Amino acid sequence: MRLGRFCAALAACLPAVVLATTTPPPLAPEHIGVEKLPARSAHWAYLLDVSWNNYIDERVYVYDGDAGRLLGMMDLGYYGNFAESPDGKTSALAATYWSRGSHGTRTEVLEWIDNQTLKPRGELVLPAKRAQVGAITPFNLAYSADGRFLYSTNLTPTASVSVVDVAKNAAVAEIDTDGCVQAIPSALHRFSAICENGRLLTVTLDETGQEAARALSEPFFDVDADPVFVQAVPTPTGLTFISFLGDVHAVDLSGAAPRFDAVWSVTSGKDRGRWRPGSQQMLAFNAPLHRLYVLMHRGGPGSHKDAASEIWVFDVASHQRVARWPLHVAAHGGAIAVLATRDAQPLLYVATEKSALLVLDARSGRVLHTEAKLGQSLWYMQNP
Amino acid sequence: MRWVAALVAAFAAAVSGADAPQFAGGAETFQANCAVCHRATGAGNPGLAPPVILDAPHFAETAEGRRQLAMTVLYGMYGEITVGERRYNFKMPEFSRFEDAQLADVLNYVVFDLGHAEARVAPLEAADFARERVHVVDGAAVRAHRTTVMAAKP
Question: What's the ipTM?
Answer without folding.
Answer: 0.73
